Amino acid sequence: MTDIVATDRPPEGAAEKVADFRPSLIVGEHSLCPGCGEPVALRILLETLQELEIVQRSIGVVGHGCYGSFVRIMDVDVLQCLHGRAPACATGIKRVRPDAAVFTLQGDGDMVNEGLAEVIHAAARGENITCILLNNGVFGDTGGQQTATTVLGQRTKTSLEGRDPAHHGYPIRIADIVSGLEGVGYVARGTVGTPRDVARAKRMIREALESQLAGEGFSLVEILTMCPTGWFVGAPQGPDYMEQSMAREYAPGELRARSAPRGA
């Protein structure tokens, strides 16, 4: 039986590290803010690549945002492209290397503001790639401005009054739009606010990658992630604020389930 460690006084000795649960594909420490949900999304993506045993044939295309720094700590073949152009780059890679497992990693500003046409046309063409959207409704890397996905009433660091539809317009639900296109094999939306949510989001990533490997067409997984700095809330309040704001507008779940490959 493990001895009970008293917490009413300082420990008698230094803590000892007994295990390392970090995936082996993460080769360094991230530099993102405390409470950010993007490193959690990265972890479950890399774990899934390992579990599917497709690391050696995986190629990632990363957009521009806070998550762009992940290219330094991912032990996976990856390139970084111009703002919003990840689906187009991924299309070229997949057509040249049809045997590869090609994925994009993009934020909402990158995909839905700057690359809206790219992702919609890639989906409509049925490109056999997987796009991962990290959606926090904030341009976090450039100061906390609103994006096309910021929900009504959601505040950001530069708009504490929240999104006003009369002034800012309404949010774009890209996953809902893409799910209705003919060339799409799988679309889902998850979150990383709780351990249960993380496990569910990981299953969605696996379904999307398996859909690509089966040749079922375009796949997209939108993951709601916390951005306490951009939302101007404390790190511990991030998951609750996400649940109260973004999750109400973007309900988690499968928007387009997998079906038989085209032509089957």
What spatial form do the alpha-carbon principal axes imply? globular
Rg for CA atoms: 19 Å
How would a textbook summarize the main sheet? Answer: 7 strands, mixed
Structural class: alpha/beta
CATH fold description: Rossmann fold
Helix tally equals 10
Through-space gap between termini: 56 Å
**Which sequence of strands runs across the widest sheet?**
2-1-3-4-8-7-9
Residue-averaged pLDDT: 89
Write down the oligomeric state.
Answer: single chain
Percentage of helical residues?
25-40%
Which percent range describes the beta-strand content? Answer: 15-25%
Uncertain residue ranges: 260-264
Order of helices and strands: HEEHEHHEEEHHEHEHHHE
Counting DSSP E segments of at least 2 residues, the number of strands comes to: 9
Q: CATH class, anyone?
A: Alpha Beta
Which CATH architecture is right?
Answer: 3-Layer(aba) Sandwich
Number of domains: 1
Question: Please, what is the CATH homologous superfamily?
Answer: Thiamin diphosphate (ThDP)-binding fold, Pyr/PP domains
Give an overview in words.
The chain is an alpha/beta fold and 264 residues long. It has a single domain (38-256), classed as Thiamin diphosphate (ThDP)-binding fold, Pyr/PP domains (Rossmann fold, 3-Layer(aba) Sandwich). It has ten helices and nine strands. The chain has a seven-stranded mixed beta sheet with strand order 2-1-3-4-8-7-9, with helices on both faces. Strands 5-6 form a two-stranded antiparallel ribbon. It starts with 37 loop residues before the first helix and ends in an 8-residue tail after the last strand.
